[in-house]
Amino acid sequence: MSNTRYIIDKQESELTPALALIVYRGNAHYPSDSDEIYIEMRDINEKGKMGAAAPLSRECISDLITSLKDEGEFSVNYTYGKIPENLLYFDTNPATAKLIWYDKPGLKNMYFTENIGIEDSLYYMPGVIYQLTQEKLDIYAYKGKTPKMHTRLYKAPFFNVTGTSVCLGNSKAAELTDRTFSNVMEYWESLFWNSRFSSVGSQPTKSNLVVVTKKAKTKFDTRELLPFYKDHNKKQPLLLKDICL
């Protein structure tokens, strides 16, 4: 509560309104435009009064969204569209924005740097759970085909991952323009799987990760997975529901 009060006090003492955006929806005078939206902007003078209105073009709206995104706004805030079957959880509140989805076990194209000593090829991988927060990707593994809220979470058996945190390095993917749930999820998956695996952040498997990965050309051995725990005593396993809070 004290932190909230502090933020409000700072806003009242240091911030001055300079511009207002007003959104209009079609009304009774224009029944054919009842579903249309019109946005105008008005300057606010030193006395706090609004000036003359000016229409806000589509280009201006697009530039405004891009500007907010560039300032660190989380992309989930702008995500929309049909809910994919593999989307487990989403929260578009700017303060807690989060997307969590899964990928069933199966073959994945994997690419490696020369120092790893593994050839680029298709490898069998366990089920994967992705968590996207504040433009940061975390990743977990799970056993079975389709995860449930009580599914246990394991360390992702991949290179370029420390704990749950993914290091994407200079990985690139096609520019994300249409921010549907499916497109956002596909974009971040592409960044991860199209990158070159180059280092072991922390040992995520019981045996050597290089050996485990090479064997995964024919089958991934889920017995190699190391579980996450919620406590230091390792008595409370980390479950899917725990990261959906």
What does this entry look like structurally?
This protein is α+β, with helices and mostly antiparallel strands. The protein has five helices and 13 strands. The strands form four sheets. It has a five-stranded antiparallel sheet with strand order 4-5-8-9-10, with helices on one face. A three-stranded antiparallel sheet has the order 1-2-3, with no helix packed on it. A hairpin with a 6-residue loop joins β4 (87-91) and β5. The model is unreliable at 1-13, 30-34 and 70-74 (pLDDT under 50).
Sequence-ordered SSE layout with sheet pairings:
Elements: H1 2-14, E1 19-25, E2 37-44, E3 50-55, H2 58-70, E4 87-91, E5 98-103, E6 106-112, E7 121-125, E8 127-133, E9 136-142, E10 154-155, E11 161-162, E12 165-166, H3 181-193, E13 196-197, H4 209-215, H5 240-243
Parallel strand pairs: 6-13
Antiparallel strand pairs: 1-2, 2-3, 4-5, 5-8, 6-7, 8-9, 9-10, 11-12
